[in-house]
From TrEMBL:
It comes from Liquorilactobacillus ghanensis DSM 18630. It comes from the Bacteria. This is Guanosine 5'-monophosphate oxidoreductase. InterPro entries: McrC (IPR019292).
Amino acid sequence: MSSFTLEDNSAIDELGSHSIVTKLANKDLATLDKENFIIFPQQLKDSDDLDQDNYIFQQRNGKTRTCNIVGIIGDGQDEFHINSRFSKNDRRNYFLRYMIQQVLNYNVVNNKLNQSQEVSYYDLLVFLFPYYLNKALAKGVYKEYVQRQYNDVNIKGPIDIARQIKNNIPFVGKVAYRTREFSYDNNITELIRHTVEKIQLEHNFLLLSSETIKENVRIINQITNSYSRMDRVNIVQNNILNPVKYGYFKEYAELQRLCIQILTEEKIGFGDDGSQVYGIIIDVAWLWEEYICKITGWKHYGRKEELATKNLFQKLGIENQQHRYPDFEDNGIPIDTKYKRNIDKRNDYNQLATYIHIMKASKGVFLQPTDNSDMQGLNLLGELYGGGEMFSYKFFVPQNYKTYLDFKKQIQKMENNLKVLDFN
């Protein structure tokens, strides 16, 4: 298999005719989400920067480029590793690997995330499993009707004549019968249990990374009373044939898809059976914002219920109120993360100026990554008419390192520089 290393938001005209590119060019993420691609974060509505109309590859006027995603995409013959453009010439993708480690709370020393080799498609599947499991169980434990067979005196369904003759003649007081029960122990939870058992053998640290994941694993183990390692093939096949319907249980549908790929180690994807394209798509702008949240602890704003909201008007009721969402606030200063090199001098400036005004702040800051050490630090963009200043803080992503541990030491120095900075 040939492997190509690409960068997000970059021209790739030389690969414009490659079969993977031509199959996925201008295919929106809403389409790929329905075709077995793994998209992270799970729900496109969780991302302000990536929506269902976004693409992996865009072709226009004879030009081809990658868009605002990173990840691994392949077809069984070739594989594209789309890395961050702020981590130059890095096939091992340490910057992406490190952000995933921070956002998903994998703060451990000796594990595969810390090794030097390139992260594989299967590695990414496994690393995402705890996140998907936690999201699904936050909806409650999945329950569905299952067929059960009994042989006792408490008849609760139609008699199974064949089993009755085989097991209960001469008659000993028991009756063989079948029944349908609404149960927590079903094809979906059994699939999850098999996935847990496999990951415990290979990457057990992932299932010990937080109290939430440990509790959710305990719940799955507790409810899957009929678990048997010998049933794995049948359980996987039953799940392939009976996908969870979308809607309220969308998180379980996505977890089911992930578990099937982990257990089969097959790259189920988009297209005809003979030439399917598979992929793990990560919204790198979302990941950048979540990473900054993890390392700073700043007050976080957003549309999700657990995040803060800033009102635009002072006296309007809730039903007529307008909301604004700076990414972060530090001591009254609005901070907007931007995963791009150049700030849009119209939309981005207008956005930050609004935050400065409604928060009555003395300044506002764009927080951007950079691969140029000469540009790092806080830079004044200008003073606003009406009061206030606008800054850009360039967070330097290390470029020269020998190992992943070396990269971690360097980037943690950048994190410390950011955390001790007083924007006031």
